[in-house]
Amino acid sequence: MSEKLIKANHDNILLGGDLPVRRIGYGTMRLADGPDSPRGGEALIWRPPADRAAALAVLRRAVDLGVNLIDTADAYALGGGEELVAEALHPYRDGVAVATKVGVLRPSPTEWVPLGHPAYLRQQAELSLRRLRVERIDLLQLHRIDTDVPLADQIGALKELRDQGKVRHIGLSEASVEQLREAAQIVPIVSVQNMYNLVTRHHDPVVDYAATNGIAFIPFFPVAMGAHASPDGPVAAVARELGATPAQAALAWLLHRSPTVVPIPGTTSPAHLEENVAALDLTLTGAQFARLDQAGG
User: Fold this and answer.
1) Would you say residue 174 has pLDDT above 80?
2) What is the rounded distance in angstroms from the CA atom of residue 237 to the CA atom of residue 247?
3) Taking the model in full, what pTM does it have?
4) Taking every annotated instance into account, which residue ranges of this chain make up the domain NADP-dependent oxidoreductase (predicted)?
5) β-bridge partners, 27
6) Which residues pair with 19 in a beta bridge?
7) What angle do CA 199, 204, 210 make, to 5 degrees?
8) Taking a C-beta distance cutoff of 8 angstroms, is the pair 103, 55 a contact?
9) β pairing state of 137-142 and 97-102
10) Half-sphere exposure of 75 (CA within 13 A, CB side)
11) CA 252 to CA 63: how far, in whole Å?
């Protein structure tokens, strides 16, 4: 990559060619449980937030900052996440898109069980419509692919909802290139939401496939960096050069990694929320991008 300045794209991308969203969204998964509950990959996401007022405030602040893609799922707090989004934001401002996911059972706080039976997916979508207080879901994603059910049957259920006008666009989560190709034979797939960040890079082929095919790649846990976030690490060094934080540098790397990447960092802190959104204003040189890329890869 050349040394020329590469500006993070401040413009919207068009999901499905007709749904404009800014390139940093907001993921609601962390708006659950209490302050002493596990975080990160060990988070339970089992109960509505202990501080409901604070959760509502951070959702509203996200929209005030111009964030217009709000990501949730029916499995977050057994539907409580969707109810929280509706309580905070309904009636939704023009241009605000809500994405949700179906296809995972929560029989206990520690279990996330894929279930792709078509009747179950349709039922959960109906419940999501009620909890979100909408007549049509902007983006409905298959939360996990159930290997015990043909993918065609799972995608077919989502297509039926789309044909009925209950869903605008369809996406997948934790999907491979092959699965995206298979699903696209049935209905247009506008997004894929996989775990991806500077350190977790096994979905690089999916990022590239999404960019080539105009599919939004929505990374969750986008700023997980581990040891790379140390004060002496390369991420911190680039951040200091930018006058930014390591988290902002990591988000800037994602924004430069592909023109269809839309990170959805989640936080319960208004200050961190503002920090995340401000990453849109960062400019990396080619050399800075390469250093970050090599640090993670």
Assistant:
1) yes
2) 12
3) 0.95
4) 23-295
5) 71
6) 15
7) 135
8) no
9) parallel
10) 23
11) 20
Place of tokens 């319960």: 268
Closest by CA position to 268, among listed 22, 42, 21, 56: 56
* CA–CA gap between residue 265 and residue 255 (Å, rounded): 12
Find tokens 């929209």 and name the residue.
63
* Contact indicator for 168, 19 with CB cutoff of 8 Å: yes
Q: What is the pLDDT of residues 19-35, one digit of tens each?
A: 999 999 999 999 999 98
State mean pLDDT over 171-198: 98
Q: DSSP strand E in 28-114: where? A: 69-71, 97-102, 104-105, 113-114
Confidence check: pLDDT of 188 > 80: yes
Task: Report DSSP letters for 255-271, one per residue.
Answer: HHH-TTB------S-HH
In single-letter form, the type of residue at position 58 comes to: V
| 202-234 per-position pLDDT tens digit | 999 999 999 999 999 999 999 977 767 788 889
Catalytic-role residue among 76, 92, 196, 209: 76
Report the DSSP pairing between strands 13-15 and 26-27. unpaired
For the chain, how big is the Rg over CA atoms in Å? 18
What is the CATH T-level fold of the domain 13-222, as seen in this structure? Answer: TIM Barrel (3.20.20)
Q: Model confidence over 142-169: pLDDT tens digits?
A: 999 999 999 999 999 999 999 999 999 9
